[in-house]
Structures are given as C-alpha cells and as structure tokens.
Design brief:
By secondary structure, the chain is α+β, with helices and mostly antiparallel strands. Helix content is about 50%, strand content about 15%. Strands 1-3-2 form a three-stranded antiparallel beta sheet.
Length: about 70
C-alpha cells in the first residue's frame, strides 16, 4: 500500500489556507503532522490532514441557532 504524500501547496488547498500558514504552524509546532524528506522537502500524509480537520471540528463545534 502506498501512502499518498501531499506537497505543501496541496495540503494548503485541502485546508483552504495558504502555504505560508502551514509554514507558520510548523514554526510554532502546531498544525498537522508532516514529514521532512531530505533537508528541504516537506510532505503531508493525506490521512494526517483529514485527522487535523476532524480534531478541529471536535474542538470547535458549530453553533446551532434556533429559528
């Protein structure tokens, strides 16, 4: 089984954010888990992006309004 690795740009698109935001999160030690391939190449497992989104949804449930 091959694990799909996403580039920083692809990961940012899935998260509807900018690559610079992912860089900032990495610098702060936040955001989705990533792997460094060699000295410069950052990659994200698609499953880690999905996990990050699911955790964010659990931590910030949407507010339901009564109509």
């Amino acid at each position: 089984m091959t694990t799909k690795l996403l580039t920083e740009i692809e990961a940012a698109e899935l998260l509807a954010t900018k690559p610079s935001t992912l860089r900032f999160w990495r610098w702060k030690g936040e955001g989705p888990n990533f792997c460094r391939i060699g000295s410069k190449n950052i990659r994200y497992k698609k499953s880690e992006i999905e996990k990050f989104i699911a955790e964010a949804e659990q931590n910030h449930p949407s507010e339901k309004r009564e109509v």
